[in-house]
UniProtKB/TrEMBL annotation:
Protein name per Swiss-Prot or TrEMBL: Golgi phosphoprotein 3
Record InterPro entries: GPP34-like, GPP34-like_sf
Gene Ontology terms: biological process: Golgi organization; Golgi to plasma membrane protein transport; Golgi vesicle budding; retrograde vesicle-mediated transport, Golgi to endoplasmic reticulum
Pfam families: GPP34
Keyword vocabulary terms for this entry: Golgi apparatus, Lipid-binding, Membrane
Naturally occurring in which organism (per UniProt): Lymnaea stagnalis (Great pond snail)
Keyword Membrane tagged: yes
GO molecular function terms noted in the UniProt entry: phosphatidylinositol-4-phosphate binding
Length: 287
């Protein structure tokens, strides 16, 4: 195994102990039921990130503080993250498949619980889903929330400045800072990394999930990590997590990611105890 796998076990044990002494919130209980992070990987409340923040953090250049100008995938990827995050927190679900067993892409997203999550982006998306009748499919919601729809009546659903708002969340959590950079013709707000430990722990967890902790069964993987791998790939930022690996580990990691991408998502969603909306988003994002 490459040198990227050294574990500062003392840090993880101390943080785990600190978290275990804090009463669980309803969201944390719901996430455990939905396959949330195990105790070993649970960050403290100050550094625990949402799926959206994790994908953005993987895409941010450490020193420059912005995502690649050539990345045109991350926008829709972040909207997919929002839908899965709402599902993992027990706020939305897919409608029942019915007797004819409709495919994931044809089933609608239903509001299951309209209790606020405390995250502005999640609550804004949840409000749109709750108020929309008749319900819409996952693919439609990704298009609406990203503003990539031809229907002018649906433009009001667009979530604006998502990357900037997520970057501000990372600043508030002490992971990034805010700077102004001049790019000849314009000034741009950037968010360089300040806490490298958080990002390195995230990268290590992604690496471990397809190397030392690989199970060869998607349903035995943590759902949040499984979602992160798929959505980071769809957002064209997964490569950033694998770049530090040795050549041999890189080949193994990419081979296992390809195995995940080759799964029959409709078949996976029919297995017992699965999260159907998660697979619906993965299916929509992997087209």
């Amino acid at each position: 195994m490459s040198g990227a796998y050294s574990r500062s076990s003392g840090l993880i044990q101390r943080r785990t102990a600190a978290v275990s002494s804090t009463p669980e919130t309803n969201d944390e209980k719901e996430e455990k039921l939905n396959g949330g992070e195990g105790d070993e990987d649970l960050d403290s409340k100050e550094t625990r990130l949402t799926l959206m923040e994790e994908v953005l953090l993987l895409g941010l250049k450490d020193r420059e503080g912005y995502t690649s100008f050539w990345n045109d995938c991350i926008s829709s990827g972040l909207r997919g993250c929002i839908l899965i995050e709402l599902s993992l927190r027990g706020r939305v679900e897919l409608e029942k498949a019915g007797m004819r067993r409709r495919s994931l892409t044809n089933r609608k997203v239903i509001c299951k619980n309209d209790q606020p999550t405390g995250d502005v982006l999640l609550d804004e998306a949840l409000r749109h889903i709750k108020e929309t009748q008749p319900p819409e499919t996952v693919q439609s919601w990704i298009e609406y929330l990203s503003g990539e729809t031809w229907n002018p009546l649906k433009l009001r659903y667009q979530l604006r400045n998502v990357r900037e708002r997520l970057a501000k969340n990372l600043v508030e959590k002490g992971v990034c800072t805010t700077e102004k950079q001049n790019f000849l013709l314009f000034d741009m707000t950037t968010h360089p990394l300040t806490d490298n430990v958080v990002k390195q722990r995230l990268i290590k967890r992604v690496q471990d999930s397809v190397l030392s902790r690989w199970t060869n069964d998607a349903h035995r993987m943590d759902r949040r990590m499984l979602s992160l791998i798929y959505l980071a790939h769809s957002s064209d930022v997964l490569e950033n997590a694998f770049a530090p690996l040795s050549d041999d580990d890189y080949e193994v990691a990419m081979k296992r990611v390809r195995e995940l991408l080759d799964l029959d998502f409709d078949a996976e969603s029919m297995k017992e105890g699965t999260n159907e909306l998660m697979w619906a988003v993965i299916s929509a994002m992997s087209k």
